[in-house]
Amino acid sequence: MKMDSIICITGTPGVGKTSISHKLAEELGGNLVEVNRLAEEKDLFIGEDPVRGYKIVDIPSLCREIMKVVDEDSFNIVEGHLSHYCRICDLVIVLRLHPSVLLRRLEERGYDHRKVKENVEAEALGVCAYEAYQLHDDRVHEIDCTGLSPDEVLDEIISVLEGEKPCTFGGVDFMEWFLGGESF
Questions:
Q1: Structural domain boundaries of the chain?
Q2: Which of 10, 107, 127, 149 could form a disulfide with 84 if both were Cys (CB 3.0 to 4.6 A apart)?
């Protein structure tokens, strides 16, 4: 792992990005950039989705702001479900979670039914993983966090960073669950 690396940790809301990113920053040191917080602090919104009600982030402006806050002489972790849109990533870690587990987690967080459904479907279809792969190709590594402890996820990330484990994409597949007609 190079000390000037920029690692993006992405995934559907609720998969554990924030927790894992904080643990990784504690373990390895370096600079943690939280994309959602940065977007709020810099007011990087260009509107609101009229149907879904969420704020729409200006991605080019977000990426410019991330470039301003990464420390070129340090290890950087850029965390958030939009982090993979920025092409500065040396490695993209996509955290995945079985849709049935994600469903329970989002309901426990009080997400409304429509938002739960949208996020669970996105996870089942691998939307974040696919988008990351389209932009970063062989620099994307998927981790199925289902049934893993945070320490086990952290160990896998560190193994990839240290070159002990190759980047893998396409091995996490929840389509059977999706096609099985699970109801929301």
A1: 6-179
A2: 10
Separation of alpha carbons 147 and 145, rounded Å:
6
Dihedral class, residue 30 (left if φ above 0, else alpha if ψ from -120 to 50, else beta): left
- Rounded to two decimals, the pTM is 0.93
* CATH number for the domain whose boundaries are 6-179: 3.40.50.300
The CA-atom distances, in angstroms, between 129 and each of 73, 109, 143 are 28, 23, 10
Residues 33 and 66 sit within 8 Å (Cβ to Cβ): yes
With 0-12 / 13-18 / 19 or more C-beta atoms within 10 angstroms meaning exposed / middle / buried, residue 28 is middle
Q: Which residues are annotated as a binding site?
A: 14, 16-19, 109
pLDDT in tens, 48-88: 888 877 889 999 999 999 999 998 888 999 999 999 999 99
- Binding site feature residues for ATP: 14, 16-19, 109
